[in-house]
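Sharing a chain and its predicted structure for anyone who wants a worked example. Both blocks are below, sequence first, tokens second.
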Amino acid sequence: MTLVEEYLQIRKYSEQICEPLQTEDYVVQPVVDVSPPKWHLGHSTWFFETFILKSFSVNYQVYNDDYNFVFNSYYETVGNRVIRTDRGNLSRPSVNEIYQYRAYVDEAMVNFLAAPLTDEVKELLILGFNHEQQHQELLLTDIKYILGNNPLFPVYSKDKKEVLVNETASGFINIPEGIYEIGYKGDDFSFDNELNRHKVYLHDFSINKTLVSNAQFLEFINAGGYENFNYWHAEGWDWVKSHHITSPMYWHLIDGEWFNYTLGGLSPIDLSAPASHVSYYEAYAYASWRGMRLPTEFEWEVAAKSFNWGERWEWTESAYLPYPGFSKAPGAIGEYNGKFMVSQKVLRGASIATPENHSRITYRNFFHPHLRWQYTGIRLVK
């Protein structure tokens, strides 16, 4: 596949994710962590315009000077921006205008990519591909949050499955103690937070082949897991009490029966499916109740060659920190990962929202411990 073909394929998929939406769905921002779908479409376009076309395409004319302020996410180097909490206040530009913006930038990009590219441009282009794929994952989970918090529980798509594989394996995998290499190795793309490859020492451990299921998590609920402080970190217990948390996100107890909002609408909980949309606090408490723990990110990476993964992002016990020798790139691109290495937990794997070919064993996702709007799940270690 040529770079032009890959560019167009990725750009098309973002718009395919939005095809089931009504115009009103594009503009909603229920909470700060969720961005309106039209903002995702505009921001991913702004990324190519700002870092490639404006910098390297001769005589390129910016589509709209105001869009740098509207669609800049967190790049201090690039200038002022609409604060994250106000993205839902942007009734303008309209959804139609944003699609026109995408078409304008796509046409310019196709023309630009027809000429020979320097290695610097190719690296930025591949970063742009992966950046848009990250937003595709966020886009789908943000759409689920928007629709899942609509009192009517509207269907996104009856065809969108939230479980990829019916996992039949069970039991634990034993990993011997030893020194292991961690981090990305190869010539393909990786994010800077996957570097540098380095050695770690691990004690022997056993890790579950499967994720915790809804049925297993329901046992925790029925056993009073959300009512017993002994299983929780102090911070997690404060979160449970202050936010009145009694179940994973999207679970609803209706007339004595548990229902779950999925992209296919509200339906009785699939007890065999992996538990999802839980915070780190809940993952830790569940593991504590079971008399086990969560894996470190290094344990997960070493063991992941031996089990299936990719249905849920999996919480780990690891803080999101730089690897030995990590260095930030100069300029705005250096703001991509490094500045977020504080107060967050690492998640490993991928989820059903992750675009194809966008995951690998060394990929490091990261979120604050209370967040659960992503497809987050639990794998146990003993």
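Comments welcome. Residues 296 and 318 are 5 Å apart (CA to CA).
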